[in-house]
């Protein structure tokens, strides 16, 4: 195994990040997954946990089985149920006999094109973890941390033995996450970010993109970024009522066309949050500033 916090990623190659953590990159790159989904293998003894097994892809499953190398899989843990994260849980359970333990099942039907991965309707955990509940193995502990926002069922997993936090899609070093209503919720996302900011995790291992070592600094910046977006929306609506596409066009000038839908969903998430606070209201397709 190559060894480094952020080695050059190679699809299908197990890479040691630290003594208790290795990573295997799935071959599903996109505008929303960066280089692909990163599956983490936790443990250095006779048993391991798998975090975010990824897409149901034969090559990725073969790579995971090779990386497990005959060890017992104590748990297959998913951060949430988008199709780039959880579909490999079921075939990996069949291959290893391991239980699926982690986030609650959630599958919301897609209506029209999505700005991120749709939900996995076949995810069926053997055990759902609540906030603070744990999975343990030889020399390792994973503690669930409820972090709704990106999805209502999102969990992060803390590894107290090393101070690492597996952040799924909640915090990523390469991009802010998509908050897409109706399940994605901006108020929940901001509350979850404040929870992370109050922690002192040494390093974040996200499902997409490089590891993050300046953890609290990054979270503080992301909180500030979202607050700035809300101020931008209020400023634009203070000039005149506007539709979401018109807000996106002025707020995200030069944005990659593949990401316009995601930007619109994030603006909608902000508007819903502002509406609950009594700051805006909807008038047909227009949004109007009220306070």
Classify the helix fraction into a percent range: 25-40%
Indicate the CATH class of the largest domain: Alpha Beta
Low-confidence stretches: 1-8
The count of DSSP E runs of length 2 or more, i.e. the number of strands, is 15
Number of helical segments with 4 or more residues = 6
**What is the fourth-level CATH superfamily of the largest domain?**
Ribonuclease Z/Hydroxyacylglutathione hydrolase-like
Biggest sheet overview = 6 strands, mixed
Q: Could you give the distance between the termini? A: 57 Å
Strand order of the largest sheet: 1-2-3-4-5-6
What's the CATH architecture of the largest domain? 4-Layer Sandwich
Please compute the radius of gyration using only Cα atoms. 19 Å
Strand fraction equals 15-25%
Describe the fold and architecture.
The chain is α/β, with parallel strands linked by helices. It folds into two domains: 2-213, Metallo-beta-lactamase, Chain A, CATH 3.60.15.10; 237-289, Orthogonal Bundle (Arc Repressor Mutant, subunit A), CATH 1.10.10. It is built from six helices and 15 strands. A six-stranded mixed sheet has the order 1-2-3-4-5-6, with helices on one face. A five-stranded mixed sheet has the order 9-10-11-12-13, with no helix packed on it. Helix 3 packs antiparallel against helix 4 (215-239). The chain is elongated. It starts with a strand and ends with a strand. Mean pLDDT is 93; it is low at 1-8.
């Amino acid at each position: 195994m190559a060894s480094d916090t952020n080695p050059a990623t190679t699809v299908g190659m197990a890479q040691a990040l630290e003594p208790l953590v290795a990573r295997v990159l799935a071959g599903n790159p996109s505008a929303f997954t960066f280089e692909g989904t990163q599956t983490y293998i936790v443990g250095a003894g006779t048993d391991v946990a798998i975090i975010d097994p990824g897409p149901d892809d034969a090559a990725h499953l073969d790579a995971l089985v090779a990386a497990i190398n005959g060890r017992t899989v104590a748990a297959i843990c998913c951060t949430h149920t988008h199709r780039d994260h959880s579909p490999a849980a079921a075939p990996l359970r069949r291959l290893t006999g391991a239980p699926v333990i982690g986030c609650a099942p959630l599958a919301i039907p897609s209506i029209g094109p999505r700005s991120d991965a749709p939900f996995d309707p076949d995810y069926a955990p053997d055990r759902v973890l609540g906030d603070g509940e744990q999975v343990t193995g030889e020399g390792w502990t994973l503690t669930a941390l409820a972090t709704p926002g990106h999805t209502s069922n999102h969990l992060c997993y803390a590894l107290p033995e090393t101070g690492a936090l597996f952040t799924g899609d909640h915090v990523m070093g390469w991009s802010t996450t998509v908050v897409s209503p109706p399940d994605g919720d901006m108020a929940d996302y901001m509350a979850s970010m404040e929870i992370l900011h109050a922690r002192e995790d040494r390093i974040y291992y996200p499902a997409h993109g490089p590891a993050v070592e300046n953890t609290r600094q990054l979270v503080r910046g992301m909180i500030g970024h979202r607050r700035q977006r809300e101020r931008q929306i209020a400023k634009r609506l203070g000039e005149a009522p506007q539709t979401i596409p018109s807000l996106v066009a002025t707020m995200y000038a030069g944005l990659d066309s593949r990401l316009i839908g995601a930007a619109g969903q994030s603006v909608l998430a902000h508007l819903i949050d502002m509406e609950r606070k009594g700051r805006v209201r909807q008038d047909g397709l227009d949004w109007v500033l009220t306070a």
